[in-house]
Amino acid sequence: MNDQDERELLAELARLQQEHRDLDAAIDALHQSPAPDLLMLQRLKKRKLQLRDRIAFIEDQITPDIIA
Q1: What angle is formed at CA 25 by the lines to CA 22 and CA 26, rounded to 5 degrees?
Q2: pTM value?
Q3: 51 exposed, middle or buried (CB, 10 Å; 0-12, 13-18, 19+)?
Q4: What's the pLDDT at 68?
Q5: 27-to-14, 34, 63, 66 alpha-carbon distances in Å
């Protein structure tokens, strides 16, 4: 992996982590509302899980393999 690829992955990682935090805040706000929209809550949680999977994939790509 060259430096340009790694910079692009790091930029995407930062963007995804920010979106993950934003979704966490939105989910928390929906939980606090008197009548939460359960369908919206389910969709936000599903998106958050997708982001978590993508974040883990990118982190694996960035982290070099160490063969012992």
Answers
A1: 85
A2: 0.86
A3: buried
A4: 60
A5: 20, 13, 30, 37
Written as one letter, the residue type at 65 is D
Summarised one tens digit per residue, pLDDT across range 43-59 is: 999 999 999 999 999 99
* Every domain of the chain and the residues it spans: 3-62
Q: Which residues of 9-47 are buried (b: 16+ CB within 10 A; e: fewer)?
A: beeebeebeeebeebeeebeebeeeeeeeeeeeeebeee
Assigned token pair, 65: 């393999």
